[in-house]
Every structure is written in structure tokens, then in C-alpha cells.
Design a protein that fits this description.
The structure holds two protein chains of two kinds.
Chain A (H helix, E strand, L loop, with lengths): L2 E4 L3 E4 L4 E5 L13 H9 L7 E7 L7 E7 L5 E5 L10
Antiparallel strand pairs in A: 1-2, 3-4, 4-5, 5-6
Chain B lengths: L15 H5 L6 E5 L3 E7 L4 H10 L10 E3 L4 E6 L2 E6 L4 H12 L3 E5 L4 E7 L3 H6 L16 E6 L2 E7 L6 E7 L3 H12 L6
Antiparallel strand pairs in B: 1-7, 2-5, 2-6, 3-4, 4-5, 7-10, 8-9, 9-10
Helix pairs in contact in B: 2-3
Classes of the chains: A mainly beta, B alpha+beta.
Chain lengths: ~90, ~200
């Protein structure tokens, strides 16, 4: 099984983690001013790149903390794992 | 006629005989009624210092560790979350004492009913755990002072190492999962049972 390195607990089995979708999706500054289409794009439309992708993960069966990771969607390799208060590292 | 008081019972009370039949190399003991409180507080703030004063020990800040005194154990659950356990203090007294120390600068919740405690000891204790737990349990890395939240036999547990020789552990498991984990432990122990 693939190991994912929790920024707090260290390497743990993939089964302990849950996926949280694309990271760094900003909440609209003024949601009330959005049209239905713009709101739908904020809620449901996500990037689907082939290659490095910044994602949110949670160590659900360990420390239950959310963190971000840059994962390659082709190879499943985790390039970077960083806490929520850290900036996204440059992708290789 | 007076009503009989309900006797306190733990979720694994009916397993005592089956635990007693295990070999010396895999000893399992259910320890119910351990007071537990979930503590959330800023580790760098003044509330953490006041909590440390109440408990008599600093909150552990290294992940997957615990510290203990004669009466309480403080287990790291997250960067701002700890589990305070004590078999000697009453749950309400533990919660009230912590809440007084925190004084509104964090949160304290009595979770004594959430988990029950299993003791696992013996020469084959680590072998039994290794059959259902993916983390490295070698005493070089997982020894006294270490407490990991992980999966054991597909059940979420807090695994506490009590000695440096991988022969004594405590397993904190949710009460509703305890019978499942108990049957898993009995099954895992069969290969170490002399026939």
C-alpha cells in the first residue's frame, strides 16, 4: 500500500487518509454578488490536470489534521506535502 | 424493597474468561473506567502553561508521544489537541480541573465513555500487533513515550508503548469497536498459543 507522509505523524498507510479535492480554491470575497453560474463554478468546477496537482488531504484515522500535497496524477508520486499555513512549493 | 444500584460494567466485561485463557506470551487485560478528557488549547499560549501547572507536567508537543505523572497521562492527538487519561481521578473532576485551568481559552470535553482501554503484554505482544498494524513497532522507534493513532485490525486505535522492550502496550479503542478488536486480538494470539 502507498505510504503518505503526514506533516505531523510521518509516513502512514494511504488507508488512514481521506482525499479533499483541489487545494487553494479561494472563497469568493462577496458570494452574494455572484451569478448562479459563477457560484456553480466556485462550488463544482475543479482543475483536472495530467501531472502535478495541489490537493487537500486529511489524516482522518490519525491526527485528523488537514494538509496540502502536490501529487502527480499520472504516477501518484507525492512531490510535496505541506501544512495549510505554508505556501505551495514550486513544482518540479 | 429498595432498587438495586446498577453495577458499572465495561464493554469487555464478558470477555474476561477468554482473555484469561491466553498464553503468558500474549496477555490481554481490559481496563474499563479510565477517566479521559479531550483538551484543545494553543500550545504556545498561557492556557497551556496553566494546564501544565494543573497536571504537573508540560503538554507534549512532539507528534505521536505522551508524557505521564503518577496520576495522569497526556497523549498527543494533534498540534493543539491532547487526550488526558487517568485511572485515579473521577471523570468529572478531571474535566472540571482542566476546564478551570483552561478558563475559556480552549476546550475540554469529558470523553471517558468514548474509548475503553486494553492492556497487551508478553513476549509476543509486538508480533500480535504487527499482524494488523502498519506502523513501525520496533522498540528502537516505538518505545516508552510513544503513542500513535493508527489502524489496528482495521479499527482506529491509540496505541501506547509502555516499555522499551516491546512487551507492554495499551490500546485505546472506541467502546463500540472493543468487542471486534477483542475478537481480533484473540484470533491473532492463536498462532502464539501452544497446542
Amino acid at each position: 500500500m502507498q505510504l503518505i507522509t503526514c506533516p505531523y505523524c510521518g509516513p502512514r498507510e494511504e488507508a488512514e487518509f481521506h482525499y479533499g479535492g483541489q487545494a487553494h480554491v479561494p472563497h469568493p470575497a462577496d458570494p452574494g454578488s455572484l451569478s448562479d453560474e459563477e457560484w456553480a463554478h466556485h462550488l463544482f468546477f475543479r482543475d483536472n490536470p495530467r501531472g502535478p496537482f495541489a490537493e487537500r488531504w486529511v489524516h482522518a484515522l490519525g491526527c485528523r489534521r488537514w494538509f496540502n500535497a502536490v501529487r502527480d496524477t499520472v504516477s501518484y508520486r507525492f512531490h510535496h506535502i505541506y501544512r495549510l499555513d505554508q505556501a505551495r512549493p514550486e513544482t518540479p | 424493597m429498595t432498587a438495586d444500584l446498577l453495577a458499572r460494567s465495561g464493554p469487555l466485561q464478558s470477555w474476561t474468561d477468554r482473555f484469561a485463557a491466553l498464553p503468558d506470551t500474549v496477555q490481554v487485560v481490559a481496563t474499563p473506567h479510565v477517566a479521559m478528557a479531550d483538551l484543545r488549547v494553543d500550545p504556545a499560549g498561557p492556557a497551556a502553561a496553566d494546564v501544565a501547572g494543573f497536571l504537573g507536567v508540560d503538554l507534549p508537543t512532539a507528534p505521536s508521544t505522551y508524557v505521564e505523572t503518577d496520576s495522569v497521562r497526556v497523549i498527543w492527538l494533534g498540534p493543539d489537541e491532547w487526550l488526558v487519561t487517568s485511572p485515579f481521578r473521577a471523570p468529572r473532576a478531571l474535566e472540571a480541573g482542566l476546564r478551570d485551568a483552561v478558563a475559556g481559552r480552549g476546550a475540554v470535553v469529558d470523553v471517558s465513555g468514548q474509548r475503553t482501554t486494553l492492556g497487551l503484554a508478553g513476549a509476543n505482544a509486538r508480533d500480535v500487533l504487527s499482524g494488523g498494524c502498519a506502523i513501525d513497532l520496533h522498540p528502537a522507534v516505538f518505545r516508552r513515550g510513544a503513542a500513535a493513532q493508527t489502524l489496528l485490525g482495521l479499527t482506529g486505535v491509540v496505541l501506547v508503548a509502555l516499555d522499551d522492550t516491546a512487551t507492554s502496550y495499551e490500546i485505546l479503542v472506541r467502546s463500540s469497536f472493543a468487542p471486534y478488536l477483542a475478537s481480533w486480538l484473540l484470533d491473532a494470539a492463536t498462532e502464539h498459543t501452544p497446542t
